[in-house]
Amino acid sequence: MRRVDLVTVGDVMIDVRVEAGALARGGDVHGHVLVRPGGGAANAAVWAAWSGARTRVIGRVGDDVGGRVVREALAERGVQASLTVDPEQPTGTMLVVFEAGERSMVADRGANARLSLDELPVSIHAGAVLVSGYQLLQADSRAAAVAALRRAEAPYVAVDPASWPLVEAFGAERFLEETAPANTILANENEARSLTGAEGDAALRALAKRYAVACVKLGARGALLSFQGDLFEEPGVAVEEIDPTGAGDAFGGVLLGALARGTSPRDALRRACRAGALQASRAVAWPEREDA
Questions:
Q1: Phi and psi, residue 223, nearest 5°
Q2: Integer Cα distance of 146 and 179 in angstroms
Q3: Which residues pair with residue 157 across a beta bridge?
Q4: Coil, helix or strand for 21?
Q5: Which of 236, 222, 229, 241 is nearest to 282 (CA)?
Q6: Domain count, the chain
Q7: Looking at residue 222, which CATH number applies to its domain?
């Protein structure tokens, strides 16, 4: 059997997207509500599969409708799903609210927060392994996150810091120490700043001292990549932004899936920026076939 290109470990969720002109306090309001599968680990695996990679996601869902929907959706996208069913906690849910041009997010990680060591294989063999920082930054799932990094047997063992406020609360040096088994980091500007105290190129150079492959995502402006000492910069792809939720996951999944299959760092970065832009230009969570 062909080796899996990318294994993602982390959040598998249901996203609830709400658009309303002004939310009523203590009353009712008309708006647009979209329910879709999501979660960082699921998003990255699906986008990597869309780009041609063979992918697998390891996570935990509830014994509920949300868990069944996500499992079926992953199967439809050709992603292997190793999802433990939690008999007590619900499938994680992310509420994304757009009001008056502003985006607010509320996360209930539910079953995701109870991912345990017993749910991980003894060794995780793949071209690349991506562990979500949310798992590391929540006490109940921290041991599993660290174990996933240590058990990864892959050329690229990656971590996504996931949340700059959580990184700051956790402590930058502690985060860097806990992720020592990783050789790859995918951070946005705020996360890179929280970890290094620096901006832009300086933040990238600081991260490159710790990780052989370091990437700083710049949103609409593209991304910076340090790959084993070589530096690459890719401009953003011009799109009309609809919803940036999950764009970073799309970027990371495509980047790692491409690198795992032997794509050059420059081309992998270009593909990743395109995937992130595609995600930001839509309200649905996952790519369509016509996006290829």
A1: -160, 155
A2: 7
A3: 129
A4: coil
A5: 241
A6: 1
A7: 3.40.1190.20
Residue 33 inside a domain? The answer is no
Query: How many angstroms separate the CA atoms of 138 and 144, rounded?
Result: 10
* H or E segment to which residue 2 belongs: none
Q: What residues does 185 pair with on adjacent strands? A: 159, 214
Nearest Cα residue to 223 out of 209, 237, 211, 210: 237
Q: Is residue 188 part of a domain?
A: yes
> In whole angstroms, how far apart are CA 42 and each of 52, 71, 94, 131, 196?
16, 10, 13, 11, 28
Task: List % helix, strand, coil for the chain (3-state, nearest 5).
Answer: 40, 30, 30
The model carries a pTM of 0.91
260's tokens:
């795992």
**Mean pLDDT value of segment 231-257:** 89
Q: Are 11 and 105 in contact (CB under 8 A)?
A: no
Residue 23 falls inside a structural domain: no
Q: Which residues pair with 104 in a beta bridge?
A: 97
Distances (CA, A) of 119 to 5, 96, 115, 181: 20, 29, 7, 19
**pLDDT, tens digit (0-9, with 9 covering 90-100), for 57-94:** 999 999 999 999 999 999 999 999 999 999 999 999 98
The Cα 162–Cα 144 span in angstroms is 16
Instruction: Give the helix ranges, DSSP H, for the chain.
Output: 40-50, 65-76, 133-137, 139-151, 164-170, 172-178, 189-196, 200-208, 247-260, 265-280
The structure tokens listed for 90 are 């619900």
Angstrom distance (rounded) from CA 249 to CA 190 = 16
Q: For residue 157, give its domain range.
A: 6-12+38-90+109-284
Residue 289 domain-assigned (yes or no)? no
pLDDT of residue 1: 46
Name the CA radius of gyration of the chain, rounded: 18
- CA separation for the pair 289, 292 (Å, rounded): 6
